[in-house]
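Researcher: Structure for this, please.
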Amino acid sequence: MHMARTGRGLAAATSVAALAVTALANAAPAAVPHTLAVPAVVGHTLAHDVSSPLSNAQCQAKWHINCYNPLQYRTAYDLNALYRKGVTGKGRTIVIVDSYGSPTVQHDLDVYSKQFGLPSTKVKVVKWGHVPAFDPKNSDMTGWAGETTLDVEMAHAVAPAAKIVVVETAVSETEGTTGLPEMMDAEKYLIDHNVGDVISQSFGATENTFPGFAKGDFSSIKKLRYAFQDADRKHVTVLAASGDGGATDLRADGKTYYDKRVNSWPSSDPLVTSIGGTQLHLNDKGDRVKPDSVYNDYGSGGGGQSHVFTRPSFQNGVKSKVGTRRGTPDISMSAAVDGGAWIYSSFDPTATGWDVSGGTSEATPLFAGIVALADQAAGHRLGNIQKRLYDLYSRHSKGTGIVDVNDGTDNSYQGVTGYKAVNGYDLATGVGTVDALRFVPALARQKP
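Model: Predicted structure, token format:
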């Protein structure tokens, strides 16, 4: 079974490469897939010569891409007026789940915040299991550290006053069978102990790679849902990245793609809000120079029909698009590398500095910040937001803050034909993206 962190990065002086891990099944019982994470492709290397973020024009001249900072995002998503009203995520907690974590996550967030004039926040680190000492020469660890950095800084960019809890799981080549079961155990523990209002997951595994899938036996996935079922009962919102493989995704080898349409879990789970990817087109102020399109450059926003889960009731209104299956994504945020986010990290002392990153693992913590703002505005946890989200969508009103992405671009990838962004819901961007000034209070007010 392959387990990929759904993120893409462009190093300031290197080429773009996928950030992924391969989850190899061991001799564990087929009903409960245990995974051993090892890197498949590593190319997220920070440049030594970039001591501070470049302007968008400089990125275009040097690397032929656009690059954005959190101040541009705040304008693009209409967040500043919310902040002036005091809606900053205060009193809310975002939980981020990553293997290994990063030993410099607090320092890096402080540097990131100072660079852009943002208040920093305390990052609480929870170690789940015997997390090994961080080794900057271990590419698996540095890959996950890069993911952790991206997750934390993006969540903070949107919800600057929210608390952040990073859960480090002990995926280790020397410690044996770890992976998705351990992540689910960690999430359930935190849910049971009332830690966190929204959980951000930037990882996934192609449904087809789970034991029993080929025979139509989906028990290996369904037996991993216990954390999400617990979250549903305890009114905790759970998010997952829809992936970076467009309408396809990686095989179990972590290197090659299926030549047909597939989907990935946990994004495909009806108890999870699936976050897809868009490409923003902004000027230096953060104003749009043209409408958002589908993320499709060095990866592509995941989306399509689940082969495991049937259509949930909240998607009955879009059954013409999803058919009888659960469709993903539900909603989308910025994910394209051409239009990626500046992040700062120093976990590798030989590669300290600023980098441009993208992928749906950027989009997911961005939306986690949106949920934290909505929780604050509501004065309570919103929990599973799926019914609220699709009820808002059904109004087809600008007042809901849901912004359609319908420019006709698509998430075709690796030779597999994807889905176009068309009017209304589609399997490339879901219901679309958000104007936070309208979306946050609308989501907070919407009945569950």
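Researcher: Any notable elements?
Model: DSSP finds twelve helices and 21 strands in the chain. Confidence is low (pLDDT under 50) at residues 11-48, 172-178.
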